[in-house]
């Protein structure tokens, strides 16, 4: 089930505050940093090649996504890493996260990637079931205390 009208948009001066006002449920805060913290990390760590977009449904910002887009160095050098995926608490359970991730996967594949990596912190309410439905599998690696996942793209 896809959520109609879900698309990714650049974050500009016109929408930055509305996007910063998006928040997950209280019980999810341990699993995903806020948009404000994510934007600060992106600014502080340009060598990670942060690529981020607001997730919109129609004309309304409903989420945020950020990748490390083929950084030149580090553990994910030359690879795409899904750094953040946040859907506002008011819009969860409507297929928006699935549609946003599907669009990210398409963009990454179009960039010639053979995989997409992400990680999550284990715990009650963790996002593992969400990623598992997409076909992500654990790599056996840890990034700090987070379990690293890989989605391999079959040859076309």
Written description of the protein model:
With 156 residues, the protein is of the alpha+beta class. The chain has one domain (6-152): Gcn5-related N-acetyltransferase (GNAT) (Aminopeptidase). 24% of the residues lie in helices and 32% in strands. It has helices at 16-20, 35-44, 96-110, 128-134, and strands spanning 6-9, 50-57, 60-69, 80-87, 115-120, 137-143, 146-152. Strands 1-2-3-4-5-7-6 form a 7-stranded mixed β-sheet. This is GNAT family N-acetyltransferase. Residues 6-154 form the N-acetyltransferase domain. Keywords: Acyltransferase, Transferase. It holds the Pfam family Acetyltransf_1.
What is the element layout, followed by pairings?
Blueprint: E1 6-9, H1 16-20, H2 35-44, E2 50-57, E3 60-69, E4 80-87, H3 96-110, E5 115-120, H4 128-134, E6 137-143, E7 146-152
Parallel strand pairs: 4-5
Antiparallel strand pairs: 1-2, 2-3, 3-4, 5-7, 6-7
CATH architecture annotation name: 3-Layer(aba) Sandwich
Helices, by number, come to 4
Q: Report the strand count.
A: 7
Low-pLDDT segments: none
Protein name: GNAT family N-acetyltransferase
Pfam family, one: Acetyltransf_1
Domain N-acetyltransferase: 6-154
Keywords: Acyltransferase, Transferase
Quick summary:
This protein has 156 residues and is α+β, with helices and mostly antiparallel strands.
List keywords for this structure.
Aminopeptidase, 7-stranded mixed sheet, transferase, single chain, globular, 156 residues, GNAT_dom, 24% helix, Acyl_CoA_acyltransferase, alpha+beta
